[in-house]
Amino acid sequence: MKIKYLGHSSFLLTESTGTRVLTDPYDPEFVGYDYVPPSAEIVTVSHDHADHGYIKGVGEYDAVYREPGKFEYKGIHITGEPSFHDDCEGAKRGKNVAFKFRMDGVNVCHLGDIGEPCSPELIERLLPVNVLLIPVGGNYTIDAEQAKEYVDRLMPDIVIPMHYKLKHCELDIDKVEPFLRLFDDEYVEEDVGELELDRNDFNESIKATRVVVMEKE
Question: How far is residue 97 from each of residues 53, 63, 116, 141, 198, measured CA to CA in Å?
């Protein structure tokens, strides 16, 4: 499978069969930088805010998933796990759906705009995770230190930060650096383009989580 970072919380995940999953398409005018959502067979929306549910901007798609539940599309298994956009059970910002994908034998978890502290019950529902896509910018979501706790509990092989301030971003969120400083430099890779992975990459027991900061496509 291949992973491309499209900015904010949007990724394009492509299975070896060619089936594409687009996560959290966003309105570029709202976020502040250029973005044209690509076509994809599957679109997932963690919640219906302008920077995560810009479905009208997507060229073509077959299915949209925005609710908790178990789904299957041409061999791709998708699970939407209920969670909250804040630390007070949705009272401030509502609900959030964390999506898990099984693609080419790889378990990918996209946490959307999760804002609740990690709990044993939530961690159990999210496991297992090979690749974790996690917000780190704070304010509207968990911050860098809370994100690090999720990483420590979920123990993914690879963690890819998202929802942080890039150049021209107009949202009041932090940059990625406070998150990166919580890890040893030897495990941090920056300015990474497209990732290509399969289950053979995760056969050996994990020594430490790789932090991969991807370039915006």
Answer: 12, 16, 12, 13, 25
Specify whether the CB–CB gap between 51 and 30 falls below 8 A: yes
- pLDDT tens digits, one per residue of 103-156: 999 999 999 999 999 999 999 999 999 999 999 999 899 999 999 999 999 999
Residue 199 has, within 13 A of its CA and on its CB side, a CA count of 7
Token pair for residue 23? 């996560």
- Total residue length of the chain: 217
Residue type, 152: D
Q: Which two tokens stand for residue 209?
A: 């989580």
CATH number belonging to the domain at 2-214, selected among 3.40.50.620, 3.40.50.1980, 3.60.15.10, 3.90.770.10: 3.60.15.10
